[in-house]
Amino acid sequence: MSPTQEAVITTPIKPASWSYAEAFVPEDDVLAAARSRADEVGVTPISPGGGAALRFLASAIDARAVVEIGTGTGVSGVWLMRGMRSDGILTSVDIEAEHQRLARETFAEAGLPSQRVRTIAGAALDVLPRLTDGHYDLVFADGDKAEYAAYLTEALRLLRPGGIVAFDNALWHDRVADPAQRDEETVTIRDLGKAIAEHEGLVSALLPVGDGLLVAKKEWIAEAD
Prior knowledge:
InterPro entries: Cation-dep_OMT (IPR050362), SAM-dependent_MTases_sf (IPR029063), SAM_O-MeTrfase (IPR002935). This protein has 225 residues and is of the alpha/beta class.
C-alpha cells in the first residue's frame, strides 16, 4: 500500500492515549529547563515522545557518533546523548550561535562532559559537507524544512551501513497527510517521505510521535563477487 492510500483503522488512537504515550518516558528538570529556554527564544523542540524515540534508536544501535541538524536549546541533544555510548560524541549544527550557547547550558546541567559535544555554528549545508563520509551512526534532522531533501543526501553519505537517519516534523502539523496543502515546506516533507519509502537502500517507518518522526536505516549492501 502506498503512503497515499488509506488504511482501515478499527481502533483509532484517542487523545488521552496519545498523551499517555507521549509522557510514557517522563522528562526531568533538565529537559523542563531546556524547554523553558526554547520558549524564550522561539524554538520548538522535539516532543517528549519523539525525544524518547531518539534515545531508544541511539541506544539500540549503540551509537558512538551522531550528527544533529538543529541544536535548539539542547532538548533533542540530551535525549540523543542519554541513549548513546558513554564515550559517544554528538556533533550538533545550528545557524544560531545563541541557541547553541543555551544548549551548552543544558548539557552542563545534564552532567554531560563538554568533550562529548561538538557544537558548530553555521548553515547546515555549509557544515555537513565538511564531515567525514561513513563515520556516523545516526543523523537527526530538525532544521530548515525546505532543506530536508538535501539533508537526506548528506545523511546517506555520512552514515555507516546500518546507520539511521531521522527527521522531525514529518507530519508537519497535519499538513503532510492533506493533499490539498501545497506550500513549499509541506510539499518538501511529503516528497521526502515518498523518496525514503521508495529507496531500495533504506528500511523506513513513519512514527506518529510528536509532529511525526520519519526514520530510516541505511541497509548493508553486499559487495559483488
